[in-house]
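Q: Okay, next protein. This is Sugar-binding protein from Klebsiella pneumoniae. I've checked the sequence twice, so it should be correct. Can you predict the 3D structure?
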Amino acid sequence: MINFLLNSKEGVDILGLERGVPLSKAAVTYLTEDGVIKADDPAVSGLKLAQSLPTALPVSPYFDDPQIVAQFGTTLQYIDYGKKSVEEAAEDFQRQTDRILRRAMR
């Protein structure tokens, strides 16, 4: 049933864009051919932008300090929730991690 709704032409026609732009390549193909999905649609542009972002963050073996890992997560949340710009978050991350490292090296 799920495969029918997400990947078959009939199921995709029924759902359309009710739940946003589908992630199924088959569904996107069907809806694009039918003219339901247009390249200039902001939702499509946003999805393409999100899909172009890196999906894995390489982590240095030197990045094991739990306080630094926690600070990294906090910094990402500030960016994700729009509380800080990337530049502000980067400056804050550097300041906080320098403080953590200074305390660790005492």
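A: Here is a summary of the prediction. The radius of gyration is 21 Å. The chain has two domains: 2-52, 66-104.
Q: Noted. On to the next one.
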